[in-house]
Design a protein that fits this description.
The protein is α/β, with parallel strands linked by helices. The protein has helices spanning about 5-10, 50-55, 75-80, 90-95, 105-110, 130-135, 155-175, 205-220, 230-240, 250-260, 280-285, 335-355, 360-365, 365-370, 380-390, 395-400, and strands at about 30-35, 60-65, 85, 95-100, 115-120, 140-145, 200, 220-225, 245, 260-265, 290-295, 315-320, 320-325, 370-375, 380. The strands form 2 sheets. The protein has an 8-stranded mixed β-sheet with strand order 3-2-1-4-5-6-14-15, with helices on both faces. α2 (about 50-55) runs parallel beside α12 (about 335-355), α7 (about 155-175) runs parallel beside α8 and α7 (about 155-175) packs antiparallel against α12. It is globular. This is alanine dehydrogenase.
Length: about 400
Amino acid sequence: MPTELSELTSVGLIAKESPLQVKKGAKPLHVGLPKETSTQEKRIVLTPESVGLLSNNDIEVVVESGAGLSAKFSDQDYSDAGAKIVYSRKEVLSADVILKIDPLTIEEIGDMSQGACLISALQLEKQNADFIKALNEKKITAVAFEYLEDKVGGMPVVRAMAEIAGSTVMLIASEYLSSVNEGKGLILGGVTGVPPTQVVIIGAGTVAEYAARTAIGLGANIKVFDNHIYKLRRIKQLLGQQIYTSTIDNYSLGQALAEADVVIGALRAEKGRNKIVVTEEMVANMIHGSIIIDVGIDQGGCIETARMTTHDDPVYQVHDIIHYCVPNIASRVARTASYSLSNIFTPIILQMSDLGGTEEMIFNYKWFLRGVYTYRGSLTNAFLARKFGLNHKELQLLLAARY
């Protein structure tokens, strides 16, 4: 800032752009980490190392016993970091801020403190109007992982989990190509004198980028399809080499699929449900024993023969083609995913504590505001309102009225 402006600011003639100051005497932020109840979910939002940092900054963290076990974090790890370990789920849910992967059930929302904050995935396909009504009855401020942005307009949680999923899908493909799992008996990649494995990736986003990096590193031959030219151009630049890219049309895609050993469905829905681009006829023409992994199955998928599976029963066959359609692939590597989530949410909780709570966080940071879908008894997301037939109020207007 030039000297003249600095002097004007110092005497109060120009207002500084600064966040609201913390209210003196405000109670420490109280954060709860409940145990995930779904057998499919093994991640946790905060690692013991992050809990230690929060505890050192006077943030109280309560962890439900066993919450980190699936990610190989013990109760002792959290206790040593300064967390309070409790066996009562209601006690955890009474915290000011609840951090969780899966959204709470309606019954669990009833155990939350009035006006508290819930930060979790929304998982839109699993929700209904009763879920929103339960949040509003308790005047909960709910923040969705999927909608949360960062300071530069990116979607940090979505990208982080996409990076992990993209890297992991090729390892999954390698498992099911092996003779041990009654696959084609191929190594994913290639060796001297043997033609490389053929990999087709449908979509050119983050999942596709990291899947392509892994496949190329193993020596596979890849083809990437997407209907956005700028995405195809970007993935070539990011990978730093000339790979086969094409827009999606039945002839080119059909030919590629007929020669493919591995097919990755990595299209992300732009408005609602994904469009089907791989028909059952195309699947029937593939080489027997090949594998399809549809990463976007939670949004409907892009492959006609794909249906959602679980980690307990992940694969099935159609036309002798193996299908792997588990929605939360990142949960396969729960410890890595937990560290990745913790890196995102630890700074957010620290900022929230510095400002004095969720209210001030929403007021000061638009990138955080983007994730809010219910606020003090009102639905604030227009898309959810249309989907569930509910009324909504613009969050900016609610904030303006409040401040």
